[in-house]
Design a protein that fits this description.
The complex is a heterodimer of chains A (264) and B (279).
Chain A (H helix, E strand, L loop, with lengths): L20 H14 L6 H18 L3 H6 L2 H17 L5 E5 L2 E4 H27 L2 H12 L9 H31 L9 H32 L18 H20 L2
Antiparallel strand pairs in A: 1-2
Chain B lengths: L3 E10 L9 E9 L3 E5 L6 H8 L7 E6 L2 E2 L5 H7 E4 L12 H11 L4 H14 L15 H13 L5 E5 L7 H17 L3 E6 L2 H4 L4 E6 L2 E6 L1 H5 L3 H5 L6 H11 L11 H10 L5
Parallel strand pairs in B: 3-8, 3-9, 6-7, 7-8
Antiparallel strand pairs in B: 1-2, 1-4, 4-5, 9-10
Helix pairs in contact in B: 3-4, 3-5, 4-5, 5-6
Amino acid sequence: MEKMIFGRYLPLQSPVHELDPRAKLLFIFGFVIVVFLANNILSYGILAVFTLLCIYLSRINIRFLLSGLKPVIWIIAFTFLLHIFLTKEGDLLFNIGFLKIYEGGVRQGAFISLRFLLLILVTSLLTLTTSPISITDGLESLLNPFKKLKLPVHELALMMSISLRFIPTLMDETDKIMKAQIARGADFSSGPIKERVKAVVPLLIPLFVSAFKRAEELAVAMEARGYRGGEGRTKYRLLHWQGKDSAALVLLLVLAALLWWARS
Amino acid sequence: MKENIISINHVHFRYPGQTVYALKDVSLNVAKGEWLAIVGHNGSGKSTLAKMLNGLHYPEEGQVTICNFPLKDEFVWDIRRRLGMVFQNPDNQFVGTTVQDDVAFGLENNGIPHEVMVERVKASLQRVGMLDFLNQEPHHLSGGQKQRVAIAGVIALQPDIILLDEATSMLDPRGREEVLRTVRQLKEEQDLTVISITHDLEEASRADRIIVLNKGSVYREGTPEEIFQLNEELIKLGLDVPFPVKLSEILRLQDFEIASNYLSEEELVRELWTSNFKK
């Protein structure tokens, strides 16, 4: 679990960390679209260089980033193989009996895998450089226009931040219940899968019961502290859009223009 | 006579669908600036009373007035602004992801402008001695620290009354002492009224006045000294008498001469080690 980089936040000092979460969210959103412009070696090369630049600016150790990618490597390898075997374009490279590998398949496979890899790298940069609460604030602020369409933006953001706040609490609780069950002879770590799944039930039930109890008490406490929905509320955390945030988006536009020029 | 900040007149209350009254003809007043302890066994109605003072329940009959506001729907938010509540479970009242966010929560709810908010968060945390923990997440804090953050969240709204609803019952002795010391200090610094609802008579013994609730009614009312004279009766009500009171009672049965029921251990110790000089 320690190796997982998804959803982890590394509190460092870097130009990327200092960006407004809204800028980063918009940037990622734009990047996901722009990536699809690339379709030849030159344009993919530009994309790769751009991604490396982003990683460099975030001051995050590239080895750390790559070691965190291990769980996804298999999915990338799988898509690569799928393209190699199933795409029948261009010149025939290999022909081993029923296996026919075409030049187009290798190229396609390599491009798609690279695209996938770059997308994962850039999106994990978002969570690595932005604290979860900032992401929540950014989302709330970006989704604000949708309030007109009756989307409960404030409530969604509050739900997100409360979930984030209770994750460690519930983890501790799970640990406690697990130890209590082990002390009474429950076995979570050995035996056939069916038995192990069964052993989880007496763990989940008390966890659910206590989570509901917590929710109820929290609701009472929130009401006692004057919570009555998003109306008339002020915000403690303020977001500041600065020049560098606009610059980041301009950079993305430059990338899009470059890719447009380089694609065939 | 000091003016009353809370007055409760002949209040009756039942939980929906119940025939038994949780509160039966309760009348009491709280004077401005006093420390009132409300004690009682489980099911004595003390928590129901606490929730009523915060407008989480409304009386079926009778009137409740808090800071000159009658307890009615239209005033409930004004009352909550003036009466801050600290609950039992430190974890289940911590809303923010960090200490400062949690203190700000009540301020945000009341639409306090951002600049004022930043100042008040700092000032309140300073006063409960938690300023160094500004950016800490709740799971890195002890129970006592979390309760102190909860108190900071309450005083940030500059209330007139603090209501502690069993706020120390889940804490270890050190955490309990921390929290009570903080509240006492705050009470001295500004003219706060403190109501502490508890079943810990040790905690109640430091109040100015104690009200004993039993089965939804006021059973006794008096200073801690007066209440602890009831000794046997309190035990019958399922309340645990403080250790020094218990000890003096037993010593008296053993024919030791002990002047009165001491509420604190120090007083009793002083009485004991000087007792031979008096002979």
